[in-house]
Structure to design on (143 residues):
């Protein structure tokens, strides 16, 4: 786990507040990814130039970003939209790549915010709710 003091995010390329996310937030000791305060932007910090750049912008919140083992991709979900999906974006690219359709997957948690992440082989780890919301009423006659 990488822990460091948070670099200043006020720069010419972005003025929004950003926070590094959990997991291995640094790739190749060259860059760090962070979410904007509203979680709609994924930002990339370059340690060499000491500048933030807007990397990916989604119409709704970016959920649970995770670096791939080789540090080439960040995977994330966007389940707070009608077109819920699990996506990834490659470092150096500005468009995300669709991986898994999540719109019909019943996920637990308020607003569908169930955790997602990556296994050691970079396959998706997703949590779904298979419980029932039914309520039963029973009349019991005891002797």
């Amino acid at each position: 786990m990488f822990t460091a003091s948070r670099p200043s995010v006020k720069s010419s390329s972005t003025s929004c507040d950003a926070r590094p996310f959990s997991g291995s937030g640094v790739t190749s000791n060259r860059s760090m990814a962070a979410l904007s305060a509203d979680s709609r932007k994924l930002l990339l910090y370059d340690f060499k130039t000491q500048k933030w750049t807007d990397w990916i912008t989604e119409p709704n919140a970016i959920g649970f970003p995770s670096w791939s083992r080789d540090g080439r991709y960040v995977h994330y979900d966007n389940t707070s939209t009608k077109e819920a999906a699990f996506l990834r974006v490659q470092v150096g690219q500005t468009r995300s790549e669709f991986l898994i359709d999540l719109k019909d997957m019943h996920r637990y948690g308020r607003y569908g915010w169930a955790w997602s992440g990556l296994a050691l082989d970079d396959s998706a780890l997703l949590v779904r709710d298979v419980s029932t919301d039914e309520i039963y009423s029973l009349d019991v006659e005891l002797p």
Observations:
- The chain has one domain: 18-126.
- DSSP finds no helices and eleven strands in the chain.
- Confidence is low (pLDDT under 50) at residues 1-16.
